[in-house]
Amino acid sequence: MQSGFVSAYRATDYVAYSDGRVFLIRIGYHSLVIDGLLTRMKARSGAFITAWNPFSRSLSAGANAYWDRELKGYLSARGFAYFVGEGRGGTGEWPPESSILAFGMSRPQAASIGRRFRQNAIVYLPLGRPAELVMLRWLGYPGQRPVRETA
């Protein structure tokens, strides 16, 4: 079942919004539109992160809203620009989750923030490359190596 999470993450549409535009991110796909957005934001990378439903355990709307505000405050306090967005599961098992597309953070920074907000994974967006699913916790599926937690 836990490997089902990985399949669900890969089937998800990661969508960010800005100025009436919609930016679609898919795991394993390179997007010239996203490259243009990263360039416009003067960033060599970005990350799609949520604070909703930590460790894929469903929380109440109020609890999810609280963690969403905490994530946005955390990023703002550290000077990261971001667009709001949502992850739309392709399997229909989860409702859309409020998320952010943050600009200019390294993979280790993005992973650290994902861990801080108790997420199983984040999506990393390197300029000129396909979007990458970055697992933050070992979910016990074949071929996945455990990820060492860092403080």
Word description of this protein:
Strand 4 (82-88) and strand 5 form a beta hairpin. The protein is 30% helix and 27% strand. The chain has helices at 2-11, 32-40, 61-77, 107-116; strands at residues 13-18, 21-25, 45-50, 82-88, 97-103, 121-126, 132-135. It has one domain. With 151 residues, it is an alpha+beta fold. The protein is globular and about 35 Å long. It is built from 4 helices and 7 strands. Mean pLDDT is 90; it is low at 146-151. Strands 2-1-4-5-3-6-7 form a 7-stranded antiparallel β-sheet, with helices on both faces.
The helix content is: 25-40%
| Spatial arrangement of strands, main beta sheet | 2-1-4-5-3-6-7
**What is the approximate shape?**
globular
Give the low-pLDDT segments: 146-151
How do the SSEs run, as a string of H and E?
HEEHEHEEHEE
pLDDT averaged over residues: 90
| Biggest sheet statistics | 7 strands, antiparallel
Structural class, by secondary structure, is alpha+beta
- Structurally, how many domains make up the residues? 1
Task: Report the count of strand segments.
Answer: 7
- Give the DSSP E fraction (strand runs of 2 or more residues): 25-35%
What labels describe this entry?
30% helix; alpha+beta; 151 residues; 7-stranded antiparallel sheet
SSE layout and pairing:
Blueprint: H1 2-11, E1 13-18, E2 21-25, H2 32-40, E3 45-50, H3 61-77, E4 82-88, E5 97-103, H4 107-116, E6 121-126, E7 132-135
Antiparallel strand pairs: 1-2, 1-4, 3-5, 3-6, 4-5, 6-7
